[in-house]
């Protein structure tokens, strides 16, 4: 059973009781988590890079985690990163809007997102991304990985 702790105090949030197994926090719960766990500018860049990876279809995270990361990105996109700024956020907004209207990205937008993601990933070191995801797991936004979840898949690249 997936148990997410989105409170800062380390105990389960009362909102967790209404979730079914495998269901992550909703957008409001992620906003609450962000209010209690401020992201650093490099972590904002990490959230942006993961959003790009979700959009271009290359993210290897489980679907529930992709939804959580989308909520996280939407909650922090106005915050300042170090390397990834407004042009990237506008490109993501365009892709999200297209996807909401059409159910998927067209090839041109997907290619733009892919190219943007590749460039974004070169600006963020692998250790920074790993620490970011570890923090999200340690502080309860993402579920803690079980050993079986880690076999054969390097989620640092998700």
Give your account of this protein's structure.
This protein has helices at residues 27-36, 41-56, 63-76, 86-102, 107-123, 126-138, 147-150. The longest helix has 17 residues, at 86-102. It is globular, with a radius of gyration of 15 Å. The two termini are 22 Å apart. It has 158 residues and is mostly helical. The model is unreliable at 1-20 and 151-155 (pLDDT under 50). It has one domain (14-142).
The number of distinct β-strands equals 0
* Number of H- or I-type helical stretches: 7
Helix content: 55-70%
Topology order in helix (H) and strand (E) letters: HHHHHHH
Instruction: Domain count, please report it.
Output: 1
Q: Strand pairing plus helix content: what structural class?
A: mainly alpha
Query: Any idea what the radius of gyration is?
Result: 15 Å
């Amino acid at each position: 059973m997936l148990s997410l702790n989105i409170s800062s105090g380390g105990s389960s949030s009362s909102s967790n009781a209404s979730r079914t197994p495998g269901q992550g926090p909703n957008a409001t719960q992620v906003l609450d988590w962000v209010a209690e766990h401020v992201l650093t500018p490099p972590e904002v860049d990490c959230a942006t890079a993961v959003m790009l990876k979700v959009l271009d279809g290359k993210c290897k995270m489980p679907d529930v985690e992709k939804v959580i990361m989308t909520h996280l990105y939407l909650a922090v996109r106005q915050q300042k990163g170090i390397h990834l700024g407004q042009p990237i956020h506008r490109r993501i907004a365009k892709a999200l809007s297209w996807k909401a209207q059409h159910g998927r990205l067209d090839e041109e937008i997907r290619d733009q997102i892919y190219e943007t993601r590749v460039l974004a990933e070169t600006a963020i070191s692998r250790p920074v991304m790993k620490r970011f995801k570890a923090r999200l797991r340690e502080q309860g936004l993402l579920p803690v990985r079980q050993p079986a979840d880690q076999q054969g898949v390097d989620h640092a690249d998700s």
